[in-house]
Amino acid sequence: MFEVHAFSTPNSVKVPIALEELGLPYTLVPVNIRQGAQKTPEFQALNANAKVPVLIDRARDLVLTESAAILIHLAEQTGRLLPAVGAARARVFEQLFVHASGLGPAFGNAGYFRKLAPEPIPAAIERFGAEADRLVRLLDGLLARQQFVAGDELTIADIAHFGWLWRREFAGVALDAAPHVQRWVDELQARPGFERGIARTMALAAA
Ligand SMILES: N[C@@H](CCC(=O)N[C@@H](CS)C(=O)NCC(=O)O)C(=O)O
């Protein structure tokens, strides 16, 4: 049994989706980041970096942070959603790094400067919005040639990118000029595992 400390956020949703797709049992513990619950000493004892999600894997006595690291750990427990060796595995890591170093921060900053910053800074809105759009075009090129972001099989790289594409409105990203990304989002959202993971994550905001 896994325990996931999370909220209804783009980085959180990846973990319940992966657990659902892998058929692993888990419980969810809400961390209301709107009310500052990530800054409490109790939560920071789990993650000194004060961010969700956090996975607790009691069977392995492991408390793990960073959504990409959590996805890799879960895939490795099951031997699914991450090829064991070779070029196919390298492609998954390539996309996980694009996500963690590029797409995730671009979407997060685009959303922050559009919606949350105390005063408007046009250069920041333009810079991060353009970067988010550029990375969506990069994915669109990939998805024009293959069904999933790392090839022709669903992997944890799809789950990672999906988290932020699911919350694209916050970042001001539209998919009108990215038909292949739209097709991929529609297909993923229709999977029962994604539906259940999203529903359980959304329910955290009401907890
Ligand atoms: N690189 C981290 C980013 C985690 C992250 O930024 N989480 C956000 C929610 S999506 C958060 O906890 N924000 C609260 C804060 O920064 O105070 C990951 O992928 O897990």
Describe the 3D structure.
The protein is of the alpha+beta class and 207 residues long. The chain folds into two domains: 2-80 and 194-206, Glutaredoxin (3-Layer(aba) Sandwich); 86-191, Glutathione S-transferase Yfyf (Class Pi), Chain A, domain 2 (Up-down Bundle). The protein has helices at 10-22, 41-46, 67-78, 86-116, 122-145, 156-166, 168-171, 179-189, 192-203; strands at 2-6, 26-30, 54-57, 62-65. It has a four-stranded mixed β-sheet, with helices on one face. A hairpin with a 4-residue loop joins β3 and β4. The longest helix is centred in the middle third of the chain and has 31 residues, at 86-116. The protein is globular. 41% of the residues are buried. The mean pLDDT is 98. Bound molecules: glutathione (GSH). Residues 9-11, 33, 38, 50-53, 66-68 line the site of glutathione.
